[in-house]
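Sample 3 of the quickstart, ligand S-adenosylmethionine:
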Amino acid sequence: MNGLFLHCRPGFESECAAEIQTLAAAQGVAGYCKAKAASAYVVFVTSTDEEALALIASLTFNQLIFARQWFRILAMTNDLDINDRIAGLLPSLNLAPPSAELFMETTDTNEGKELQALCRKLARPLEVALKKAKLLQDSASDQRTHICFLSTTAAYVGVAPSANSSPYLMGIPRLRFPSSAPSRSTLKLEEALHTFLSPDEREEALQPGMRAIDLGAAPGGWTWQLVKRGLQVIAVDNGAMAQSLLDSGLVEHRREDGFRFRPEEPVDWMVCDIVEQPSRIAELAALWLAEGWCTASIFNLKLPMKKRYQEVEQCLEIVRNRLDQTGRHYHLACKQLYHDREEVTVFAVVLP
Ligand SMILES: C[S@@+](CC[C@H](N)C(=O)[O-])C[C@H]1O[C@@H](n2cnc3c(N)ncnc32)[C@H](O)[C@@H]1O
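Result:
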């Protein structure tokens, strides 16, 4: 089988499929998607391996909103002998170029969770077999080998460019919930900062003394991330903020409407986690950036039940249109993060 395998959030297969279909068509690559509801993956089938290779090379992984991870399919085996799966996988793995590492994956589903023990059991002997065949731990290689088990006898085998894919197994970062953070939402902003910014960019963009506005801040999970990095935060929300944040001396709480609030002077960041119609949030963020009230913004778009891909595209268009009018250069990125639920996260920055 030729094509691309894409991991996504369970329930978002049709959005992931619509997106890759659109992007492939724009690259002149014809193909079709196999996407089963709640399976947490999509397969984009191409006629030839060359087309799949050209597609993964021409697209930037970060431009995909709904795909958490991807790889080019080398083979699909669905009749693995449960007494010797390695023998069944080796012919497919022999098709892979020498690679730097091996990702043993499942899908983000209950069935997938049950297969994780099998992945752990097989990882070591597979690594040994691949090293023996000089197919693994090639430090010069920029490729990563993926094996994704769908059941105890079926797996996709493939390869992804390390620099043009997620660095995380199944695209899921392992972030630990910080016990002093006031809400689990804190992980959304932490994941966003890790996804959209490199370590160097994070250090430069989030320096002690910088100023941020957090719209819809209560109880303070996002504010906590900013305070942790030494930023001064105005937290805008009618709801109560965690006392520990108010005691930090870095947080000013304003019980105001986030849509009406305006900063007294420009700030470095505006973040927004208000649950509202996505187009209203997109317009609000676009206004802040276009007016120069903030330099950078991270905001969440809570998605409707239907036409979610179209809704996200329309919201991004609102931001693009507004920023294009300013004549300023900017960077805009959007991703459905692992810690996002029925939502996506947008990062936008106006460049100097
Ligand atoms: C998902 S919660 C935010 C969680 C927060 N980011 C955290 O990490 O703890 C959404 C918040 O938006 C607030 N909110 C809703 N509408 C608002 C508005 N118009 N202005 C300001 N805050 C609003 C709610 O009071 C609620 O606290």
